[in-house]
Amino acid sequence: MKKEIDGEELNIPEHVAIIMDGNGRWAKKRLMPRNFGHKAGANTVEQICEDAYNLGIKYLTVYAFSTENWKRSVEEVTGIMNLLRKYLSNAYERASANNMRVRVIGDRSALDADIVELIDKLEKDTEVFDGLHFTIALNYGGRDEIKRAVQDIAERVKSGELEPADIDEKLISATLDTKELPDPDLMIRTSGEYRISNYLIWQLAYTEYYFTDVLWPDFDIEELKRAIRYYNGRDRRYGGVK
Ligand code: FPP
C-alpha cells in the first residue's frame, strides 16, 4: 500500500513486528523501579497501535513477554502480568473504536487461568474487526513455537493423516502460532540492541530490520515514520536478482 506521509509517497509495510526494548533503562534514568518503565511502555503500545492504523499498517505484532522473561524477579514478572491483565480487560473499547482485531501468540499453558480467559474473550470479541490486526507475543519464543509445531506435525504423521513427504514450508507456516498472519515486512527493535532474541525466527527470514537507540517508552509516530522511510530505502530481493 502506498501513502503520502509528510509530502513523500511511501510504501507502507503490511506487517510490522516490534521488539519493545529499553523499558528498564528508561525507568532507571528516572531513578524509578523497572515496572514504572513497563507501565510507560504499555502506554506507548496503545498509542503506536493507533498510529500504525492511521499510517495504513495492517498487521502489528509486539513482543510483550518471552519464554525467557520468567527469569526476571517475581516482582517484575508480576508487574508485567498485571499490566497485561489491565490491557486485556480494557482493550475492547479501543479495539472497537479503531476497528482492531487482537490476537495473542505463544504458549498459554504457563499463564494464569484468568489471563487465558481474558485472552480468549478479547480474541473472540474482536474477531469481527479487520482494520488493524494487533498481535501480542506472550510467553512466546520462536524455538518453542517451532517445537510445538513439530510436535503437532509428528502427531499427524503418527496418526496417518500426513506422510513425511507432505511436510513443506507451507505446512510448517500453517502450523505455527502465526498461521493467520503474513510474514513481517519490517522488524523494529528499540534501545540499541542488535539481536532477534528468539522472536519470530521462522517468520523473519526475509524481513527488513530497523534498529534504533530510542528506548521503547520514548518511541512515537515520528520514530515509526523514520522506520518506514528506512524500509523504503531497502531493496527487497528475496534472494533473487533485480
Ligand atoms: C523489554 O524492556 C520489555 C519487556 C520485556 C516487557 C514489555 C512489556 C510491556 C511494554 C507492557 C505490556 C504490553 C502490552 C501489550 C500492554 P526491558 O525490561 O528488557 O528493558 P531494559 O533492557 O532496559 O532492561
Keywords:
242 residues, globular, single chain, Undecaprenyl pyrophosphate synthetase, six-stranded parallel beta sheet, 7 helices, two-stranded antiparallel ribbon, binds farnesyl diphosphate, alpha/beta
The name CATH uses for the topology is Undecaprenyl pyrophosphate synthetase
Radius of gyration: 18 Å
- What fraction of residues sit in β-strands? 15-25%
The computed structural class is alpha/beta
CATH architecture assignment: 3-Layer(aba) Sandwich
What's the assembly state of these chains? single chain
CATH uppermost class? Alpha Beta
Strand order of the largest sheet: 5-6-4-3-7-8
List segments where confidence is low: pLDDT < 50 over at least 5 consecutive residues.
none
Q: What count of helical segments does DSSP give? A: 7
The helix fraction, in percent, is: 40-55%
Tally of individual domains: 1
Instruction: Give the end-to-end Cα distance, rounded to a whole number of Å.
Output: 21 Å
Superfamily (CATH H level) name: Decaprenyl diphosphate synthase-like
Written overview of the protein:
It is a single chain. This protein is 43% helix and 18% strand. It contains 7 helices and 8 strands, in the order βββααβαβαβααββα. It has a 6-stranded parallel beta sheet, with helices on both faces. The protein binds farnesyl diphosphate. Farnesyl diphosphate binds at residues 20-25, 38, 41-42, 45, 62, 64, 69, 80, 83-84, 87, 136, 191.
